[in-house]
Amino acid sequence: MQARSLLLLLALILVAATAEAGKKKEKTKKDGSKCEDWRWGPCVPNSKDCGLGYREGTCKDESRKLKCKIPCNWKKKFGADCKYKFESWGGCSAQTGLKTRSGILKKALYNAQCEETVSVTKPCASKIKSKSKAKKGKGKD
């Protein structure tokens, strides 16, 4: 008798878990669209060149807008949808006064058109920063 009760209880738990998994799948596709080939445009900030904005997407006859954000410290040259893995900064060029490093494309969000490799430069430090500071002793004379 206990074995039947246990088996019935396990069957009910299995049915409940399966139903809950089905609900989660339905929630992820809450927009009701059956279209799977969405084409998304770049993130367009609401004002200036960074911050909150939106991106437009189209699929067949449907169109949508998604909220997005471009960080204000982002390299605008590459776009917010292109993520790169950068190597360490190279040495300072005496001729140009610039340091250079390159990055390899790590991820292109929303099917963005991204360059496979990019190169960035920045000015060399004008003077060497010293982290050591003189410390005054607190001993008795």
Automatic annotation (TrEMBL):
Q: Which Gene3D superfamilies does the annotation name?
A: Heparin-binding Growth Factor, Midkine, Chain A- C-terminal Domain (2.30.90.10), Pleiotrophin/Midkine, N-terminal domain (2.20.60.10)
- Annotated Pleiotrophin/Midkine N-terminal domain ranges read 23-78
**What are the subcellular locations of this protein?**
Secreted
Q: Where is the Pleiotrophin/Midkine C-terminal domain?
A: 79-140
Signal peptide stretch: 1-21
Q: Name one GO cellular component term.
A: extracellular region
Q: Which InterPro entries match?
A: Midkine_heparin-bd_GF, PTN/MK_C_dom, PTN/MK_C_dom_sf, PTN/MK_diS_sf, PTN/MK_N_dom, PTN/MK_N_dom_sf, PTN_MK_heparin-bd_GF_CS
Stretches of the chain forming a coiled coil according to its record:
none
One Gene Ontology MF term? growth factor activity
Record bears the keyword tRNA-binding: no
Q: Tell me the domain of life.
A: Eukaryota
Q: Please tell me whether the keyword Calcium is annotated for this protein.
A: no
Keywords in alphabetical order:
Developmental protein, Disulfide bond, Growth factor, Heparin-binding, Mitogen, Secreted, Signal
Which GO BP terms sit in this record? Answer: positive regulation of cell division
State the family it belongs to.
Belongs to the pleiotrophin family.
Protein role: Secreted protein that functions as cytokine and growth factor and mediates its signal through cell-surface proteoglycan and non-proteoglycan receptors. Regulates many processes like inflammatory response, cell proliferation, cell adhesion, cell growth, cell survival, tissue regeneration, cell differentiation and cell migration.
This protein's name: Midkine
